[in-house]
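User: For a benchmark we're assembling, each entry needs the component sequences followed by a predicted structure for the full assembly. Here are entry 17's components. Please fill in the structure.
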Amino acid sequence: MPAGFEPHTPFTERTYWSLPNGLLPTAAPLTDWRRSVVVWLDGPSARDRSRAPADITMADARFVPPVVAIEAGRSARFVNRDSVLHLLEPVSGKFMAAESVGPGDTTERQFDRPGTYRVRCSEVPHMEATILVLQQGQAAEVSADGSFQFNGVPPGIYTVQVWYAGEWMFKQSVEVGGKPVVVEARLRKAQQRKE
Amino acid sequence: MWFSRVWVVLLAAVVALAFAVLLVLPRPAARQLFNAHAYKLDLVQHNAHLLLKVEAREAIDRAVALSRDPRLVETLELASTKQRPPDQLQAKALATISELLAPLQPESRPGLIILVDDQGKQVARVGPGAEKIVPGQHGIAGYPLVEAALRGLLRDDSWSVEGHLFTMAAAPLIGRAQQRYVGAVLLGQEVDDAFVRRLRQRLVSSTVPFLAATELAVFLRGRMIASTFSSPELSRLPLQFSQRRDQMLRDERSPAINIGEGATAHVVVMAPLQSEAAAHDAFYAIVGPPAARADLVPALAELQRSDFELAELLQAGGVFVALLVLGLLLLQLEGDSPLNRLLVDVRRLTRTDILRLPDRDHNGRHGEIARLINEYFDRQTKRPAAGAGASAKRAPAGAAALEGAHGGAPNDRSGDLAFDPATGGGLSPLMAASSGLPPIRELDIDRVLDEGLEDPTSPQSQDNGLSALPALDGPGVMALDGPGFMLPEETAAESGTASVLSEQFLLLSHAGALSMLQPLDLPPLPDMEPLDDKFPAPSLGPLSPQFAGPEPAPVTGSAPPPGHRPHWGQREPTGAMDPISIGPIIDPADKAHHAAPPRAAASPALATEEEGDTVMSSVPEQLARSLAREQPAATEAGHGASGGIAPPSAADAAPRASEPELERYFQQVFKEFMAVKRSCGENVDNVTFERFARKLRGNRDSLIQRYGCHDVRFTVYVKDGKAALKATPIQP
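Assistant: Structure for entry 17:
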């Protein structure tokens, strides 16, 4: 994460004041930015054998993780672990109808067509989740130190892509043989968060 | 006419342009006024933005003050380290908050207070949703405000909580060791009527009228949640916001818009509330008075005396004079218009300078008018004299006589118009046409020849009328028996006399005849007095010099035969003429026609119209016999007789034209005749003046001799597309 990285602040996040307290330095945000990074291995042999839905949890008035990547045909499941009702609705488009999810409830939605789908809670407007639906491949989680790992990949030629701040920021072709392959992805500074 | 139309078009264009200018011209001024008005509202909105920022900073300061309370710090330290059960910490925190808020006025107390630990879990909550939380479990760390506060930032926000709008402020709580953030305190001020009233008090000044009339309203999720005034027009603003949402989120305010009409008209500037509530369509509206109108009527109402400057009035007057001069110039140019040229030709026609209107010289409708007038005269000319005679026969004899006595215009209502000096008797064509009377060409020669009458306005005619009257049934009433006499209805009813009144006779009786019969009111004439004294000759109009006699002829009378009771109007025939055969003049080879013997005046049937002859109607047989019978009697009886005064002889009333004058007259008629023949396209090679004059002279002499008229007037006219002559006996 480059220093000074700050995504564009939409109007709904603008404030009159945002000041340091003058006593202690500003701490790191509780929400780890790495949870918003998706690393995707694209290739015919890299298909995700798991057909289980990808969970997106609503807790502490936020989606965790805020971004998930799934193959076309898989589902995303929204789990409400908050004490308040969340009303899910698409940010744009009509890929799903508005749906209320009470505390402790879940809802599931299958995505058959590749694309980028954004869901938000109309009651807590800052809550927004992104579902990346890809034709084939598998995703890897990013650890706290920023590393990621794909295991059991058959030999072949693949493409490693990294999604962050609303766009695919990194893409590299790799050939997998009998030895481990190391890919280093550097994310450039995002000038603007794409809505 | 063309210029008249141009002038009307120009005038209409000027009026329309002036009206359009009056309507359009104030609009730029109105736009300027509105823009200035909108600019004021923009300033007010900008001030409101600053005030909200100040309010947010003041809320942050209150949050900071609260975050410095050691009891709250201690509570959140315990909550972050989970050293105490959440319930106990909640109770302790609420007690501390209650103690801290106690000194504050109720309106100053925050509507929402939330304490969160270092993980964003709610430890204590005061306000909406407090009953739903589970301390230590329900976190709100996802809120940007909470996350920022837990990072150590002082921040503000706006939240929509259970239908209420709050302006939020958050401050971190720093542990007693000052090594880390142990939590955050969030203060929310509900945006209600009290909030906007307080904001308005700080925003507007009562010393500025515009600001004093400015109001505030706040909306959330499509409904108004607070305002400083009420107006039904405010309900329209959420729709306006939704329509302009993207633009407003980009520009942070809307342009000034007009809402409402009349007394409820306002100008509004809307601005979204920043932060999270903007996603819930939270916005506030600066509502100002309507902009001053600069339309025509309001602008006129605002005029003051000082607005009128002399120089401008002089300029307006100059424009008026210029337009007036332009209009007069166009009117002057219209003197050469087609209508004016037609008018000139018609005037020439009435003066007999021309015999036909030059219809080919006029275009369009004017030419059509000229052609129609010419066709009308042509039709009147084409009517056979026999038809007129038959008409006279259909009418009673007395009526016919009366018509004839009226100078050939039986339905003419004016005795002055009855005799046209230009034609020698009867109305001029144009006068006849304009009065709806038949032209003299049809009646003058026929009726005069048939009835032997002269101009009724002449003394002789009046005298004849008097002398012919057999009896009077009272002053001013004429009771005439016998066919054709005018008989008042009551008198006729009393006497039981059958009277047939022709339409023409009735018309004549209204004006012309009554004026002619005016002498009937006189008492019976006792003696033979000079008629000229009692009945002076009326003005007959300028006769041609050749017909002006040098001295009046002596008055002669005729005595009715014994036992004869002459009808009124059955007077001495003063003229009769043979038809003038023009054919022989034109075509000398037509010997048979030329050699035809003249028809005698005593002949009962003279009206045999021939090709090329002057139209002639037959002399009624009764009148012819009467003429033959009375002429000798009058000659023998001389003056005076019982029963009336004999009229003077027309032949002796005035001297006839001298020979040179007659020659000049014939030349004039000849020229006119030739001109008409040429205009009709006839061949004039064989026509000579000598033969023409000889023929006219012969006819003139014959007529004078037979009917005792003073002179004969010849009139050229067109008949069946050919030139023809008509002879008219003339009385002095």
